[in-house]
Amino acid sequence: MEFRILGPVQCRNGARALKLAGSRQERILAALLLGADRVVSVSRLVDVVWDEDPPATAIRQIRNLTTALKRTLVAEGAAEDVLTAEGPGFVLRPGVFDLRTFEEHVSRGEIREALACWRGPALSGVDSMALRGEADELDERRLSVVERCLDEEVSAGEDSVAELTALVAEHPLREPFAGLLMRALHQQGRQADALNVYRQARTRLVEELGLDPGQKLRELYERILRDEPEYGKTRCFLPYDVPDFTGREAELRRLFDAVRLGRPVAVDGMAGVGKTSLAVHAAHRLAADFPDGQLFVDLHGHSPAREPLPPEAALEALLGQLDVPASRLPGGVDRRAELWRTRTAGRSLLVVLDNATSAEQLRPLLPGSATVGLLITGRRRLSAVDGGASISLEVLPDEQAGALFAAASGRPDSGVAALCGNLPLAIRIAAARLQNRPQWTVEMLAERLGSEHDRLAELTVAGRDVAAAFALSYRELDAAQQRLFRLLGRNPGADIGVPAAAALAGVGEHEAERLLEDLLDAHLLRQPALGRYAFHDLIAEHARSVVRDEESGPAMGRLLDHYRDGGGFGWYRTERANLVAVTRHAFDAGLDEYAWRIAEDTTEHLRESGHLDELLAVARTGLAAARRLGDPQAIQLSLASLTLAFWENGRLTEGMGCAMERLDVVRASGDRAAEALALSRAGALHSMLGRYAEAIRFYRDGLAVAGDGTDAATLWTNLSNTHEVLGNLDDALTSARRSVALREDARGTILSSAQLGLVLARLGRFEEAFEVIERSIDSSRDLGYLFGEAWSRIDHADALLLAHRPADAREQAERACAILTRLNHPLLLAMAANSLGTACLALGETSAGLRQHRLALETARRIGYRLQEARALAGLGQTRAARDHYSAMGLPAEPLKVVT
Q1: In 3D, which of 491, 644, 660 has the Cα closest to residue 577?
Q2: Residue 467 and residue 430 in contact, taking contact as beta carbons nearer than 8 Å
Q3: 392 phi/psi in degrees, rounded to 5
Q4: Are 34 and 5 in contact (CB under 8 A)?
Q5: All residues at 6 or more sequence positions from 529 whose CB lies less than 8 Å from its CB, including other chains
Q6: Cα separations (Å) of 755 from 381, 729, 735, 858?
Q7: Backbone φ and ψ of 358, nearest 5°
Q8: Which residue among 409, 417, 504, 887 is least crowded, i.e. fewest CB within 10 A of its CB?
Q9: Which residues lie closer than 8 Å to 789 by C-beta, 6 or more apart?
Q10: Range from 284-293, 409-418, 840-849 that averages highest in pLDDT
Q11: Which of 229, 224, 228, 217 is nearest to 179 (CA)?
């Protein structure tokens, strides 16, 4: 029998609610449940039933109603003592009670299960003044648990926007819900929407209560306004901490003492000795001492078939864990190191740099603040950190090694740990074998290890070959598992997903996943992320030692086919590092057809995600492969990719050289369509460099060979933009109209129409301009075309600025910036940030305006966008520098009124 008060007051027998004898008995049941397992006095029940006007017979009626309630409960199967008279009142002993269940779930952290106990407002339908206060307390308790639940879910990155939007509408004066909605929106990159939630909440509080928002909500608003990392987010990037970590007590004490004294710690030792396990275990135990987060980067100092992670890439990973998008990273290791030190200054962070190879690799990664704890691991003794504590790990002592085997296998050790040389990695693999074969005894395993002789030379410890554990693990696999293990040894990437493994093995994805999971269970693979599988470096070496040439060649062909065929945007994002490695592997193996094709497909996705160092490396590899092939089509497409890579990296002079070489190649081949594209790119580069007359010449040459298709439409759009910059607005209008007329695809129409709208605005034809641009925005949203929406909103913001509507311009620019931060598109971000800065300054929001112009200046300088650099300088009040930039481009000091 179940009793409920979290909603309508009910007593239920299975799916059926018991019928109570009217509202008075319902009130009595409610009061008894609120005082469950305690005496509720008759006088309390009188107040509950009649409020302040009881009849003379009230006590007798209470006893009669309570006795009748007991008879009903007992008749439905309840125990005789479910409701008893005791002392001055009655005690109800509910067996199953929704309020008790709710609180038990809450105490166990099962928040969603707790909230599922509610079926409406507490004591719903019970109209008793005496109970109203307790009902309100229960409803408030539910709301506080809802806040806790959503706080945890938002902090975990879950999408709670819809639920929070409804709660804010239902409880408009409850500031915590508004704050959670702001956090959830900001977490999704919707900065403008988050700020709008605050403005609406503030308006309601002022108008209805005459109060400003509380300090916590105001501080959250300021953090989002500054676009700081997600409020309250716990940054823990530490790998999994094994629950059966064993031994190393002395090393842990030394490590904890050093870290708490502010000293960096470097842990060194042989491969497989447990350096990473020790560092990760210690970091988890130290996490509470570093509330701002725990960061982790594998530097791949000794990862097979993989170069050590360059400092630039390591800094990109670390800054990414601090929510710095790749699009905002400066070029060069020194500038990234400076940004890293700035972002970590004064913050209580713990940083683990795993698998370091050299002092040169480490030095740029060292934080500058004593508040940052630092743990470093590597096979060699590291001396890069002055004042650091050094801990050298040896193999485990006999007692600890035996304890580790017992903990990992569930059986007492009988010499297996010693046969593994007391090396932790080998012990764990041997233990896994035993766990998966309950019919084996420990002695049988020890005998098999003792008879094994095919061992890795570097795992010889104190005269005993411990690498036999790896060979034994392999030999105990079935034929299909062995084959996949061997083939994985040829994988050039750092990890592998199920589809790639299926291609490598030539099997279906279901079978590939089963085999991968088998290898994972055998501790021959690890799982760094859901659906991703990787070798430990030592086991990878063993896998390569058993490769069979007759099967690896066809397998690599299938794997390269898989990467050449590609996938969606999410696939490229997940496979990014592997695509870089596969491109290089194909080139080194002389498989140039694969190398250039994979490179060409990968470069655009690397550009969109903002991984500019890798973009340049992949594009160079692709071009080298294409040149070796001697295929003109491959060469011109690869030159196009490398031109784009130089452009995005702000190396425009080198990009110009590639663009001009590509133009020579396509002209020699007679490919008129490719020539038009090459001329368009060459013109765009000249425009970025502020050489507008040359840009116009290239665009007109391109139009002469382009025909009347999409390529011509793009050229007309670019030509319109250049005329607009030069102030040739009639020519700009003619070009924009030609572009729109030629467009056949929806996305291209959006871009050309937005350009047309901006030109109309510059001509003062605002009504036409806004109609055209707003139509582009609507079309972009209908298509889910984020790039086009951002492009259109920038033009809308600039048009609004020309119409002297800075408040509306700010809204459009904010939305564009939010989209572009997600897209990692620095070129448009420089434009949007300048537009937003101009709008803010026009509204008197000086701090916000200058901040946006500084962002635009940094981005424009990094990518070499001269016009936006000049505009940012003007916005920052650096008039002379801005004038010099405009003059160098052949433009007047104020070439485009308010906007530029």
Answers
A1: 491
A2: no
A3: -100, 125
A4: yes
A5: 495
A6: 59, 12, 10, 25
A7: -160, 165
A8: 887
A9: 777, 780, 781, 816, 819
A10: 840-849
A11: 217
**β-pairing verdict for 96-97 and 2-4:** parallel
Residues 6+ apart with CB under 8 A from 375: 255, 259, 264, 265, 267, 279, 282, 283, 350, 351, 352, 353
Q: What is the pLDDT of residues 32-61, one digit of tens each?
A: 999 999 999 999 999 999 987 899 999 999
Pairing of strands 496-497, 532-534: antiparallel
Amino acid present at 663: L
Pseudo-torsion of CA 485, 491, 493, 494, nearest 10°?
A: 20
**Which tens digits make up the pLDDT trace of 656-712?**
999 999 999 999 998 888 999 999 999 998 988 888 999 999 999 999 998 877 789
Segment (H or E) for 283: helix 275-286
User: To 5 degrees, how large is the angle CA 799–CA 830–CA 320?
Assistant: 140
**DSSP states of 630-644 as a string?**
T-HHHHHHHHHHHHH
Judged by phi (left if over 0) then psi (alpha if -120 to 50, else beta), residue 765 lies in beta
Q: What is the pLDDT of residue 893?
A: 60
First-to-final CA distance of the chain: 74
Laid out side by side, the sheet with 10-13 consists of 16-17, 10-13, 2-4, 96-97
Q: Where are the alpha helices (DSSP H) in 743-877?
A: 746-762, 766-783, 786-802, 806-823, 826-842, 846-863, 866-875
pLDDT average, residue stretch 731-758: 94
CA 855 to chain centre: 22
Assign residue 558 a region (left: φ > 0; alpha: ψ between -120 and 50; beta: otherwise).
alpha
- Chain-centre distance for alpha carbon 423: 36
Record the tokens describing residue 568, joined without a space. 């969606």
Q: Which residues pair with 533 in a beta bridge?
A: 496
Structure tokens at 592: 């140039």
Contact 98, 139 (CB under 8 A): no
Report the candidate in 284, 191, 172 with the shortest Cα–Cα distance to residue 229: 191
Q: Is 160 helix (H, G, I), strand (E, B) or coil?
A: coil
Which amino acid does the sequence have at 356? A
Averaged pLDDT for residues 706-727: 89
User: What pLDDT, on the 0 to 100 scale, is given for residue 395?
Assistant: 83
Residue 305 to residue 70: CA distance in whole angstroms: 77
pTM: 0.58
**Tokens, residue 737:** 């109209």
Q: Give DSSP secondary structure letters for 101-122.
A: HHHHHHHTT-HHHHHTT--SST
State the pLDDT at residue 459.
Answer: 34
Q: What pLDDT, on a 0 to 100 scale, did the predictor assign at position 460? A: 37
Cα 628 to chain center, whole Å?
Answer: 39
CA–CA distance, 752 with 99 (Å, rounded to integer)? 61
Between CA 283 and CA 286, with CA 284 as vertex, the angle to 5 degrees is 60
What lies within 8 Å, CB to CB, of 108 at 6+ separation is none
pLDDT tens across 251-278, in order?
999 999 999 999 999 998 766 788 899 9
Q: 529: how many CB neighbours lie within 10 A of its CB?
A: 10
Alpha-carbon gap, residue 182 to 227, rounded angstroms:
12
List of residues 6+ apart from 325 with CB closer than 8 A: 610, 821, 824
Question: Among the listed ranges 5-14, 509-518, 716-725, 884-893, which one has the minimum average pLDDT value?
Answer: 884-893
Gap between the Cα atoms of 832 and 789, Å rounded: 12
The CA distance from 135 to 129, in Å, is 10
Side-chain-side CA neighbours of 92 within 13 Å: the count stands at 27
The H or E element containing residue 533 is strand 532-534
